[in-house]
């Protein structure tokens, strides 16, 4: 064994550097077994029951999520909806929704692209109009959700049920404190700090003030603006975003990974302004896209691309296509493996008896045995089903029909090869060349999905150590 040598470039001292230049990340010193340690040492609040539920409510969230739809319902019965207000409500729904999806989510929570100051202020204002908490608070929870997906430290874990992940986690006090997640980068962002400082005024102004004033000043519909562009629009924005935590973990497929609950579905994409391809997102969270195919609905992606075209956004991050395709291939192979294991296959050659030619002849006199490619087949159940007629099989009983089967009389189909293999009952002694003749392998088994530990290849490497890149340099 070569002696250990230290790195040529000494590692930096991140703690000291961060203390001098920027706030220290909150998760820099967490233990390796943080999740298990926290679950064992952190006291969990008692379960919510019929006797204590009212004491466990988070009243600010309860009021926000009940008064708003109540106002919308009242307004729908008392105030006529004009077409101008209706169009503005839909438009403002997308504006404030994009404040969450393009701003809170993809820009600040995941840093999937860079935004200019004007775009950051626009998204901060638009996100305030969605009334879902400040950027810093929202991103902290969302980063915890990604780091601890489906665990007890996930603030809106789908494992606790659809309604809990949709609204329950906001209506009731969390049973556990969400897992630690660093937002020190957001603490240094002046736009995030500005929004956090003035958040209450911003939600009043952007949540209800602006959507009331615009219809009121432009076409005199003050109450319509308040009820429809304000309350009803806000209700839709809330539940649109909440569906990313609930519906996106419940409805759809897992084309990239099925280890966790996130799923892809076009319906979820339609109701969440493009956030419905959630399985992709959880696999590649730093990618500015949710939908990777041109025809998939992702207006948030289109908005970010448009901002790049006009110079407001840059450095749009995309995960290497090669790695994305590996994820897809992994799941495709897994599905094929599942299908493969449900099928009945021909007996393995190692499990079949070896029969001498004389024994083959003797037994053929008692039952219809035919020799093909070194395998002995009992065709009793197929004699009357043979498409070419019974007589073509009967004349080869006790004989070698290999040439006839492989094109001499008829070049049989893959289906015929597969079916024939299911009639194997023995191997002719000295008549089967194992691993040398593909004709002995049924077409359905020539390509099989095997787990790594089934391949039988050695992963051992040389005991001699080399520097990174040394092999390539020597070969050059």
From TrEMBL:
Cofactor(s) in the UniProt record: Fe(2+)
Chief localisation class: membrane
Gene3D superfamilies for the chain: Cytochrome b5-like heme/steroid binding domain
Pfam families the UniProt entry points to: Cyt-b5 (PF00173), FA_desaturase (PF00487)
Enzyme Commission no: 1.14.19.1
GO cellular component, one term: endoplasmic reticulum membrane
Subcellular location per the Swiss-Prot or TrEMBL entry: Membrane
Taxonomic superkingdom: Eukaryota
Transmembrane segments: 57-77, 89-107, 198-220
Cofactor note: Expected to bind 2 Fe(2+) ions per subunit.
Alphabetical list of CDD domains matching this protein: Delta9-FADS-like
Reactions mediated catalytically: octadecanoyl-CoA + 2 Fe(II)-[cytochrome b5] + O2 + 2 H(+) = (9Z)-octadecenoyl-CoA + 2 Fe(III)-[cytochrome b5] + 2 H2O
Membrane topology classification: Multi-pass membrane protein
Domain Cytochrome b5 heme-binding: 370-429
GO MF annotations, alphabetized: heme binding; iron ion binding; stearoyl-CoA 9-desaturase activity
Enzyme's top EC category: oxidoreductase
Function field: Stearoyl-CoA desaturase that utilizes O(2) and electrons from reduced cytochrome b5 to introduce the first double bond into saturated fatty acyl-CoA substrates.
Name by which UniProt lists this protein: Acyl-CoA desaturase
Organism of this sequence: Gloeophyllum trabeum (strain ATCC 11539 / FP-39264 / Madison 617) (Brown rot fungus)
